[in-house]
Prior knowledge:
The protein has 325 residues and is an alpha/beta fold.
Amino acid sequence: MSLNNKSVLVTGGAGFIGSHLVDQLIFEGPKKIVVVDNLFLGKDSNLTEAKMNFPDLVIYHKDASIKNDMKTVIENEGIDVVFNLAVIPLPASLEKPAWTFRHNNEIAVSMCELAREELFKTLIHFSSSEAYGTSISGSMDENHPLNGTTPYAASKAACDLLVLSYCRTFNIDASIIRPFNNYGPRQNEKSYAGVIPLTIKHILKNESPVIFGDGTQTRDYLFVTDTARAAIKVYNSPNTRAKVLNIASGREISIQYLMQFIADYLGFKKPIKYTDQRPGDVKRHIANVYLAEDLIGFHPSVSFEEGLKKTIEWYKKYYQNCIDT
Protein backbone atom coordinates (compact mmCIF):
# COMPACT_ATOMS: atom_id res chain seq x y z
CA MET A 1 0.00 0.00 0.00
CA SER A 2 1.18 3.51 -0.76
CA LEU A 3 -0.29 7.01 -0.73
CA ASN A 4 1.72 7.94 -3.80
CA ASN A 5 -0.58 9.48 -6.41
CA LYS A 6 -3.65 8.97 -4.20
CA SER A 7 -6.29 11.60 -3.39
CA VAL A 8 -6.39 11.92 0.38
CA LEU A 9 -8.97 13.58 2.63
CA VAL A 10 -8.19 14.59 6.23
CA THR A 11 -11.25 15.51 8.29
CA GLY A 12 -10.26 17.77 11.18
CA GLY A 13 -7.17 18.56 9.13
CA ALA A 14 -6.83 22.13 10.43
CA GLY A 15 -6.63 20.86 14.00
CA PHE A 16 -3.64 19.96 16.14
CA ILE A 17 -2.96 16.36 15.11
CA GLY A 18 -4.69 16.76 11.75
CA SER A 19 -2.43 19.57 10.57
CA HIS A 20 0.69 17.58 11.51
CA LEU A 21 -0.71 14.63 9.59
CA VAL A 22 -1.19 16.88 6.55
CA ASP A 23 2.46 17.94 6.86
CA GLN A 24 3.58 14.30 6.88
CA LEU A 25 1.29 13.29 4.02
CA ILE A 26 3.04 15.72 1.70
CA PHE A 27 6.17 13.56 1.85
CA GLU A 28 4.17 10.55 0.61
CA GLY A 29 3.67 12.00 -2.88
CA PRO A 30 -0.13 12.12 -3.01
CA LYS A 31 -1.91 13.44 -6.09
CA LYS A 32 -4.24 15.53 -3.95
CA ILE A 33 -4.67 16.48 -0.28
CA VAL A 34 -8.06 17.79 0.85
CA VAL A 35 -8.89 19.11 4.32
CA VAL A 36 -12.38 19.34 5.79
CA ASP A 37 -12.61 21.32 9.04
CA ASN A 38 -15.43 23.39 10.52
CA LEU A 39 -12.88 25.28 12.68
CA PHE A 40 -14.56 24.31 15.97
CA LEU A 41 -11.01 23.89 17.28
CA GLY A 42 -8.95 23.96 14.11
CA LYS A 43 -7.33 27.03 12.59
CA ASP A 44 -6.42 27.77 9.00
CA SER A 45 -3.11 29.12 10.34
CA ASN A 46 -2.18 25.56 11.37
CA LEU A 47 -1.95 24.78 7.65
CA THR A 48 0.32 27.68 6.72
CA GLU A 49 3.40 25.50 6.33
CA ALA A 50 1.45 22.80 4.48
CA LYS A 51 0.13 25.34 1.98
CA MET A 52 3.67 26.54 1.29
CA ASN A 53 4.92 22.98 0.74
CA PHE A 54 1.82 21.81 -1.13
CA PRO A 55 0.29 24.84 -2.89
CA ASP A 56 -2.62 22.83 -4.30
CA LEU A 57 -3.92 21.93 -0.84
CA VAL A 58 -7.74 22.11 -0.89
CA ILE A 59 -9.62 23.28 2.23
CA TYR A 60 -13.35 23.03 2.90
CA HIS A 61 -14.91 24.66 5.96
CA LYS A 62 -17.59 22.03 6.42
CA ASP A 63 -18.93 19.78 9.18
CA ALA A 64 -17.84 16.16 8.76
CA SER A 65 -21.01 14.95 10.49
CA ILE A 66 -23.18 16.08 7.55
CA LYS A 67 -23.12 13.12 5.21
CA ASN A 68 -24.42 14.88 2.10
CA ASP A 69 -21.77 17.59 2.37
CA MET A 70 -19.06 14.98 2.79
CA LYS A 71 -20.41 12.98 -0.14
CA THR A 72 -20.18 16.08 -2.35
CA VAL A 73 -16.57 16.74 -1.30
CA ILE A 74 -15.52 13.12 -1.78
CA GLU A 75 -17.15 12.83 -5.19
CA ASN A 76 -15.90 16.21 -6.43
CA GLU A 77 -12.32 15.55 -5.32
CA GLY A 78 -12.17 11.86 -6.28
CA ILE A 79 -11.04 10.81 -2.81
CA ASP A 80 -9.33 7.43 -2.35
CA VAL A 81 -8.42 7.54 1.35
CA VAL A 82 -9.96 9.26 4.37
CA PHE A 83 -8.11 9.95 7.61
CA ASN A 84 -10.92 10.80 10.01
CA LEU A 85 -9.79 13.10 12.84
CA ALA A 86 -12.86 15.34 13.10
CA VAL A 87 -14.08 15.38 16.69
CA ILE A 88 -15.72 17.37 19.46
CA PRO A 89 -13.19 17.27 22.33
CA LEU A 90 -13.48 15.95 25.88
CA PRO A 91 -13.94 19.27 27.72
CA ALA A 92 -16.94 20.12 25.53
CA SER A 93 -18.63 16.93 26.71
CA LEU A 94 -18.60 18.26 30.28
CA GLU A 95 -20.61 21.29 29.12
CA LYS A 96 -22.73 19.79 26.30
CA PRO A 97 -22.70 16.02 26.88
CA ALA A 98 -25.59 14.94 24.66
CA TRP A 99 -24.54 17.18 21.77
CA THR A 100 -20.92 15.98 21.95
CA PHE A 101 -21.95 12.31 22.01
CA ARG A 102 -24.36 12.70 19.09
CA HIS A 103 -22.01 14.81 17.00
CA ASN A 104 -19.03 12.47 17.32
CA ASN A 105 -21.17 9.48 16.45
CA GLU A 106 -22.68 11.27 13.45
CA ILE A 107 -19.17 11.91 12.11
CA ALA A 108 -18.34 8.20 12.34
CA VAL A 109 -21.68 7.18 10.82
CA SER A 110 -21.13 9.53 7.87
CA MET A 111 -17.66 8.14 7.15
CA CYS A 112 -18.76 4.51 7.51
CA GLU A 113 -21.80 4.96 5.31
CA LEU A 114 -19.78 6.65 2.56
CA ALA A 115 -17.24 3.82 2.75
CA ARG A 116 -20.06 1.27 2.57
CA GLU A 117 -21.39 3.04 -0.51
CA GLU A 118 -17.87 2.73 -2.00
CA LEU A 119 -17.35 6.45 -2.46
CA PHE A 120 -13.77 5.97 -1.27
CA LYS A 121 -11.52 2.96 -0.71
CA THR A 122 -9.95 3.14 2.76
CA LEU A 123 -10.85 4.72 6.11
CA ILE A 124 -8.27 5.35 8.83
CA HIS A 125 -10.32 6.32 11.87
CA PHE A 126 -8.83 8.12 14.86
CA SER A 127 -10.05 6.92 18.24
CA SER A 128 -8.88 8.04 21.71
CA SER A 129 -7.29 6.36 24.71
CA GLU A 130 -10.06 7.97 26.76
CA ALA A 131 -12.27 5.10 25.57
CA TYR A 132 -10.41 2.86 28.04
CA GLY A 133 -10.97 5.01 31.11
CA THR A 134 -8.56 4.40 34.00
CA SER A 135 -6.13 1.50 33.74
CA ILE A 136 -7.37 -1.53 35.64
CA SER A 137 -3.86 -2.93 36.16
CA GLY A 138 -0.67 -1.86 34.44
CA SER A 139 -0.40 -1.03 30.77
CA MET A 140 -3.53 -1.16 28.63
CA ASP A 141 -3.55 -3.25 25.47
CA GLU A 142 -6.28 -3.18 22.85
CA ASN A 143 -8.29 -5.80 24.77
CA HIS A 144 -8.56 -3.59 27.86
CA PRO A 145 -12.25 -2.98 28.71
CA LEU A 146 -13.80 0.19 27.32
CA ASN A 147 -14.62 1.96 30.59
CA GLY A 148 -14.73 5.59 29.50
CA THR A 149 -15.69 7.98 32.28
CA THR A 150 -16.96 10.97 30.27
CA PRO A 151 -19.55 11.40 27.50
CA TYR A 152 -16.64 12.12 25.16
CA ALA A 153 -15.00 8.82 26.06
CA ALA A 154 -18.29 7.00 25.57
CA SER A 155 -18.70 8.59 22.15
CA LYS A 156 -15.23 7.50 21.05
CA ALA A 157 -15.81 3.93 22.24
CA ALA A 158 -19.12 3.86 20.39
CA CYS A 159 -17.49 5.18 17.21
CA ASP A 160 -14.85 2.44 17.36
CA LEU A 161 -17.47 -0.27 17.74
CA LEU A 162 -19.38 1.23 14.84
CA VAL A 163 -16.35 1.23 12.52
CA LEU A 164 -15.51 -2.37 13.45
CA SER A 165 -19.11 -3.40 12.85
CA TYR A 166 -18.98 -1.94 9.32
CA CYS A 167 -15.73 -3.83 8.70
CA ARG A 168 -17.31 -7.10 9.77
CA THR A 169 -20.79 -6.63 8.33
CA PHE A 170 -20.12 -4.67 5.13
CA ASN A 171 -16.42 -5.44 4.61
CA ILE A 172 -15.32 -1.81 4.45
CA ASP A 173 -11.55 -1.30 4.32
CA ALA A 174 -10.82 0.44 7.62
CA SER A 175 -8.32 0.58 10.47
CA ILE A 176 -8.58 2.32 13.84
CA ILE A 177 -5.70 4.00 15.63
CA ARG A 178 -6.13 4.80 19.30
CA PRO A 179 -3.67 7.60 20.17
CA PHE A 180 -2.86 8.31 23.78
CA ASN A 181 -1.99 11.84 24.97
CA ASN A 182 -0.52 13.84 22.12
CA TYR A 183 1.47 17.01 22.65
CA GLY A 184 3.54 19.37 20.55
CA PRO A 185 3.33 22.62 18.56
CA ARG A 186 -0.13 23.89 17.54
CA GLN A 187 -2.06 22.17 20.32
CA ASN A 188 -5.11 24.29 21.11
CA GLU A 189 -4.24 26.96 23.67
CA LYS A 190 -7.54 28.81 24.07
CA SER A 191 -10.97 27.21 24.47
CA TYR A 192 -10.61 23.62 25.71
CA ALA A 193 -6.84 24.07 25.97
CA GLY A 194 -4.64 21.08 26.77
CA VAL A 195 -2.64 20.96 30.00
CA ILE A 196 0.73 21.57 28.31
CA PRO A 197 -0.07 24.78 26.36
CA LEU A 198 -2.14 26.03 29.31
CA THR A 199 0.73 25.46 31.75
CA ILE A 200 3.24 27.16 29.45
CA LYS A 201 0.87 30.11 28.99
CA HIS A 202 0.38 30.58 32.75
CA ILE A 203 4.10 30.47 33.46
CA LEU A 204 5.01 32.87 30.64
CA LYS A 205 2.48 35.28 32.19
CA ASN A 206 4.18 34.74 35.59
CA GLU A 207 1.08 32.96 36.91
CA SER A 208 1.13 29.70 38.84
CA PRO A 209 -0.15 26.75 36.81
CA VAL A 210 -3.04 24.76 38.26
CA ILE A 211 -3.27 21.02 38.92
CA PHE A 212 -6.74 19.51 39.15
CA GLY A 213 -6.66 16.89 41.89
CA ASP A 214 -3.47 15.75 43.62
CA GLY A 215 -1.27 15.58 40.51
CA THR A 216 -0.51 11.88 40.82
CA GLN A 217 -2.79 11.07 37.88
CA THR A 218 -0.73 9.80 34.94
CA ARG A 219 -0.80 10.01 31.17
CA ASP A 220 1.09 8.37 28.31
CA TYR A 221 2.42 11.26 26.21
CA LEU A 222 3.47 11.00 22.58
CA PHE A 223 4.94 13.75 20.41
CA VAL A 224 2.47 14.60 17.67
CA THR A 225 4.74 13.90 14.69
CA ASP A 226 5.15 10.31 15.89
CA THR A 227 1.37 9.89 15.80
CA ALA A 228 1.16 11.36 12.30
CA ARG A 229 3.82 9.00 11.00
CA ALA A 230 2.12 6.06 12.70
CA ALA A 231 -1.18 6.86 10.97
CA ILE A 232 0.51 6.69 7.58
CA LYS A 233 2.15 3.39 8.50
CA VAL A 234 -1.26 2.04 9.46
CA TYR A 235 -2.61 2.94 6.03
CA ASN A 236 0.40 1.33 4.36
CA SER A 237 -0.13 -1.94 6.29
CA PRO A 238 -3.15 -4.00 5.15
CA ASN A 239 -2.61 -6.30 8.15
CA THR A 240 -4.08 -3.54 10.34
CA ARG A 241 -7.52 -3.64 8.71
CA ALA A 242 -10.49 -4.25 11.02
CA LYS A 243 -8.17 -3.80 14.00
CA VAL A 244 -7.52 -1.21 16.71
CA LEU A 245 -3.92 -0.17 17.38
CA ASN A 246 -2.68 1.76 20.41
CA ILE A 247 -0.30 4.54 19.37
CA ALA A 248 1.65 5.72 22.40
CA SER A 249 5.03 5.77 24.11
CA GLY A 250 4.39 3.07 26.72
CA ARG A 251 5.76 5.44 29.39
CA GLU A 252 3.75 6.75 32.32
CA ILE A 253 4.12 10.45 33.24
CA SER A 254 2.46 12.12 36.23
CA ILE A 255 0.87 15.54 35.91
CA GLN A 256 3.08 16.71 38.78
CA TYR A 257 6.23 15.70 36.89
CA LEU A 258 4.95 17.31 33.71
CA MET A 259 4.22 20.68 35.31
CA GLN A 260 7.40 20.73 37.37
CA PHE A 261 9.48 19.98 34.26
CA ILE A 262 7.92 22.93 32.43
CA ALA A 263 8.37 25.20 35.45
CA ASP A 264 12.02 24.20 35.90
CA TYR A 265 12.79 24.58 32.19
CA LEU A 266 11.34 28.09 32.21
CA GLY A 267 12.99 29.00 35.52
CA PHE A 268 9.64 29.52 37.26
CA LYS A 269 9.92 29.55 41.07
CA LYS A 270 6.36 30.16 42.30
CA PRO A 271 4.47 27.18 43.78
CA ILE A 272 2.04 25.20 41.63
CA LYS A 273 -1.60 25.60 42.67
CA TYR A 274 -3.95 22.70 43.37
CA THR A 275 -7.71 22.65 42.97
CA ASP A 276 -10.58 20.14 42.86
CA GLN A 277 -10.36 17.16 40.53
CA ARG A 278 -12.30 17.50 37.29
CA PRO A 279 -15.38 15.32 36.82
CA GLY A 280 -14.65 12.02 35.10
CA ASP A 281 -10.88 12.57 35.16
CA VAL A 282 -8.86 9.45 34.38
CA LYS A 283 -6.52 8.41 37.20
CA ARG A 284 -4.03 6.29 35.29
CA HIS A 285 -3.13 5.97 31.62
CA ILE A 286 -0.31 3.86 30.19
CA ALA A 287 -0.37 1.97 26.89
CA ASN A 288 0.77 -1.44 25.79
CA VAL A 289 2.05 -0.85 22.25
CA TYR A 290 3.16 -4.36 21.33
CA LEU A 291 0.54 -4.72 18.59
CA ALA A 292 1.68 -1.53 16.85
CA GLU A 293 5.27 -2.69 17.17
CA ASP A 294 4.39 -6.03 15.57
CA LEU A 295 2.10 -4.82 12.78
CA ILE A 296 3.69 -1.53 11.69
CA GLY A 297 7.09 -1.54 13.40
CA PHE A 298 6.08 1.45 15.49
CA HIS A 299 8.58 2.99 17.91
CA PRO A 300 8.47 6.62 19.14
CA SER A 301 11.30 8.69 17.69
CA VAL A 302 10.98 11.65 20.10
CA SER A 303 11.47 11.23 23.86
CA PHE A 304 9.07 12.97 26.23
CA GLU A 305 11.65 15.42 27.56
CA GLU A 306 13.02 16.21 24.10
CA GLY A 307 9.53 16.76 22.72
CA LEU A 308 8.48 18.89 25.69
CA LYS A 309 11.48 21.19 25.23
CA LYS A 310 10.60 21.59 21.53
CA THR A 311 7.00 22.32 22.48
CA ILE A 312 7.94 24.92 25.10
CA GLU A 313 10.24 26.72 22.68
CA TRP A 314 7.50 26.76 20.01
CA TYR A 315 4.98 28.29 22.41
CA LYS A 316 7.47 30.87 23.63
CA LYS A 317 7.77 32.15 20.06
CA TYR A 318 4.04 31.77 19.45
CA TYR A 319 3.02 33.83 22.47
CA GLN A 320 5.62 36.50 21.70
CA ASN A 321 4.00 36.93 18.28
CA CYS A 322 0.42 36.59 19.50
CA ILE A 323 -1.51 39.75 20.29
CA ASP A 324 -4.16 38.01 22.41
CA THR A 325 -2.19 36.23 25.14
